Amino acid sequence: RRRDGEEFWVEVALRASRIGGEDRVLAVVRDIGERKRAEETIRRSLRELEVLNSISQAAGSEEDEGALSGRATEVVRGALYPDDCGVMLLDEKAGMLVYAESYARRRDRPPIPLGTGITGTAAATGEAIRVDDGTADARYLARAPDMRSELCVPLKLGARVIGVFNAESRRVAAFSASDEHVLTTVAGQLATAIGRLRAAAAHRESEERFRRLAESAFEGIGIHDDGVIVDLNSRLAEMLGYEPAEIVGRNVMEFVAPESKPEVAAFIEAGTDEAYEHLAVRKDGSVFPMETQGK
Q1: Which residues of the chain have pLDDT under 70?
Q2: Can you tell me the distance from the alpha carbon of 68 to that of 58, in angstroms, rounded to the nearest whole number?
Q3: CA distance 19 to 25
Q4: Which listed site, 127, 238, 250, 277, has its alpha carbon 20 to 30 Å from 56?
C-alpha cells in the first residue's frame, strides 16, 4: 500500500545473503501493476469471446423467445455483469418496455414508457446510453436503489427498435466503452435471433390461417411444386375420391384425363393464372369436367 492509501500489486523475491559479515534476507520488490492489468485485460477479452460464442449458439438453437432471452441473460450476468441485467421488450401498441421474465432482478417491476428513464430513452432514440452515476442523472429511475451505474443498448432490427438489453452495477462508473461495444454486439445477435423466431411464428400462423380458409372453402385447393402435389384441402381430395394423404407426393398429371394432358401441361408450363377447363379422373376411374386456375 502506498503512502496515499492506494493498493497495488507487487512481486517479492527473497534470497538469503551475507551482508557485512552477517546473514541477511534480501528482498527484491517489483511493481507488477501493469502486468496484472494486462492479465486482467486478457482474461476479460476471453470472457467476452465466450459470451459472444454462447449467445451465437443460443441464437441458432433456441426456438422460444422467452428461452432465448433467458439464456442470453444467464450468460451475460454470469460472465460480465453479475449485479443486475436483462432484456426488456417493446410493446409497440402500448408504447411500453416490458421486463422479460428472465430479467435478473425483475421483482414484478412495472413497464417503462418510451422516453422515460435510461431504458425508455435508449429505446426511443435507438442509441446506447452509459451512465456513470445514476444519482446525478435526472433520467435515472431508481427501481433498484442499490444500483449506481447503468449501461443500456437497444435491440434493433434494421432501424426498428424491438427492446433493450440493460445492465446495472453497484459501483460508480462500472461500465466502459469496451462494455458498451460488447453489449451492443450481444444485443445485435439477440435482436436478429428474435426477429427470426418472430418471422417463423408469423409464417406458421399464416400457414394455419390458409389451412383454416382452405378447409372451409367450397372449391378444391391444391399446392404443387414443379407438378408434385405438396398440400391440398379436403374438398379437392373429396372431388377426386381420395383421402388427402393418398394424393400428396403424386404428380398432378396423374389426375388428368389422357385427352386433357397436353392442354394441362401447356398451362402449367406457361405458369398462367388464367382459368381453364379440362377433364379429370377420379380414383374409381370415372371422368368429370373440372375448372382449374393457377396462382
Answers
A1: 38-42, 45, 107, 213-216, 295
A2: 6
A3: 9
A4: 127
Collapsed DSSP state (helix, strand, coil) of residue 48: helix
Q: Per residue in 116-172, pLDDT tens?
A: 999 999 999 999 999 999 989 999 988 888 899 999 999 999 899 999 999 999 999
pTM: 0.62
Report d(CA 46, CA 134) in Å as an integer.
Answer: 29
Is residue 70 within 8 Å of 40, Cβ to Cβ? Answer: no
Please tell me the distance from the alpha carbon of residue 193 to that of residue 175, in angstroms, as a whole number.
Answer: 25
8-state DSSP, 83 = S
Alpha helices in the chain (DSSP H): 33-61, 65-79, 117-125, 177-216, 234-240, 244-247, 261-270
Tally of CB atoms within 10 A around 102: 18
Three-state SS for 200? helix
Q: What is the DSSP string of 235-253?
A: HHHHHHTS-HHHHTTSBGG
Residue 187: burial class (beta carbons within 10 Å; 0-12, 13-18, 19+) = buried
Q: pLDDT tens-digit profile of 72-102?
A: 999 899 888 899 999 999 999 999 999 998 9
Cα separation of 107 and 124, whole Å? 24
Q: Are strands 276-281 and 228-232 parallel, antiparallel or unpaired?
A: unpaired
Using an 8 Å Cβ cutoff, are 233 and 245 in contact? no
Q: Could you give the CA distance from residue 214 to residue 212 in angstroms, rounded to a whole number?
A: 6
Compute and round to an integer the Cα radius of gyration of the chain: 33
Q: Grid coordinates in use for 77?
A: 450476468
Q: How far apart are CA 75 and CA 110, in angstroms?
A: 24
Q: Which amino acid is at 120?
A: G
Rounded to 10 degrees, what is the CA torsion of 201, 202, 206, 208?
20
